[in-house]
Amino acid sequence: MQSDTTSATPALELSRVVKSFGAVVALRSGSLRLHDGSIHALIGENGAGKSTLVKIIAGLYRRDGGEFRLRGEEVDFHSTAQSKANGIAVIYQEPTLFPDLSVVENIFMGRQPTGRLGRIDRAAMRAEATEIFDRLGVSIDPDRPTDGLSIADQQIIEIAKAISLDASVLVMDEPTAALSGVEVDRLFSVARSLRDEGRALVFISHRFDEVFDLCDTVTVMRDGAHVDTMPIAETTVDDMVRMMVGRDVTEMFPKLPAEIGEEVLAVDGLTQPGVFHDVSFTVHAGEIVGLAGLVGAGRSEVARAVFGVDPYREGTVHVGGAPLPKGRPRAAMARGLALVPEDRRRQGLVLDLPVTRNITLAVRDRLARFGLIWGSRENESARVWASRLEVKTAALDTESGTLSGGNQQKVVLGKWLATDPKVLIVDEPTRGIDVGTKAEVHRLLSQLAQQGIAILMISSELPEVLGMADRVLVMREGRLTGEFKREQATPEAVMLAATADEEPAR
Ligand SMILES: Nc1ncnc2c1ncn2[C@@H]1O[C@H](COP(=O)(O)OP(=O)(O)OP(=O)(O)O)[C@@H](O)[C@H]1O
Ligand SMILES: [Mg+2]
């Protein structure tokens, strides 16, 4: 961190950076100026170029043009090792740990401290890891493999890595997308203490509340270019939204009136010991039922059990009045159930397949019934959904892995909507999706309900649940602890049901 330049010299500065991938211009004019002791928000719609900018900082991509200075000196990183050696640590949108290696090995990856005889000093590594974890207030066994750790813990390990590198610039690309409230608080307090030590931090998020809570400065990007940079104190959510999308987003929750018809999904007494207990609810045609609760309340597990990808010991699931067999997702799909999962990377998307194929993945059996796949029909169906969801990609045969994070999420949504479901279960449907598209996804869900689809929407975002649902169910610690009609569902009532300590009245 030594430098003889004045403190006014930015820790890092990118000006008018350009980056293309073939015909795709990911960055037209990316600019970012970071100062020591600051937490800088970087915001913009899906595909605006945020992650690309970050990957140039990380040395993962090389810029095609523009300037990149580190403490006043022009740099051009050819590798991530070079970026690291210059005190830059990046936590990517997707965790990049090696699952088979231990926590310690991951933290010290590629730079194991050696003892006097040149041997790897495991004790020293373990001691340092433990010390960092203590400082972060977490208890993770340094010797365990990283496989099976929660995303929150994986991120803590990435941060531990950054701290052990003594990075002076720390970039976090949507670190909170998969974290619970407590985990976000822990991350933020770590971020603040790193800032107070004089480091420069970048924080990418689609959540304005977080940006206001944590950051002091904000840079807005749109279509691969810098729009503006200003102190957080001098801006509002409306200003930011206008700069991000270039227009006003008037209606965030465009809930349309829908005719609520007959019962389509009926779940009765669903129990899986230690996971969820005696969960009963119904969803009617045309109805949006919101399932609220804290992360870890068991909502996703219930959804997965209903769909048949997870087991349950007791209870029944009926679709259209007929029982649905346990543990058979194919049968569930045949009966018109669709589940858009929470973890798109692991459960939703095949990254090296083209966008087209991902969208039609769940209907390919149908398309290929006679051993033939109708390429034109496949493309047609994919095109319809890609355009309805505004998937931003140069071409539909692009590998899905090169799409921006939010656009990958839209592809997963499209894949399930293409199955033309009767019951649609969506788990955190707008996580990682920008404001403009969020409103689009909400409008779409509303339209689907209007067409008579029964929708169960799991969401940790209270405004989303309250804005969209006809009825709100609340889960806490594996049990249903509240049910509210739309008119009764106040933020206070739902939060109380989600967090109250005492046993609920039964
Ligand atoms: N390796 C790549 N090959 C081809 N196109 C790419 C590649 N990486 C990024 N892109 C394209 O560049 C554009 C910017 O993507 P980027 O990931 O930087 O967006 P983002 O602002 O991080 O979006 P999100 O909020 O969805 O994460 C997108 O259109 C994306 O498809
Ligand atoms: Mg991104």
UniProtKB/TrEMBL annotation:
Residues 12-502 form the ABC transporter domain. One of its GO terms (molecular function) is ATP binding. CDD domains: ABC_Carb_Monos_I, ABC_Carb_Monos_II. Keywords: ATP-binding, Cell membrane, Membrane, Nucleotide-binding, Repeat, Sugar transport, Translocase, Transport. InterPro entries: AAA+_ATPase (IPR003593), ABC_carbohydrate_import_ATPase (IPR050107), ABC_transporter-like_ATP-bd (IPR003439), ABC_transporter-like_CS (IPR017871), P-loop_NTPase (IPR027417). Gene3D superfamilies: P-loop containing nucleotide triphosphate hydrolases. Coiled coil: none annotated. This is Sugar ABC transporter ATP-binding protein. It comes from Isoptericola haloaureus. The lineage of its organism: Bacteria, Bacillati, Actinomycetota, Actinomycetes, Micrococcales.
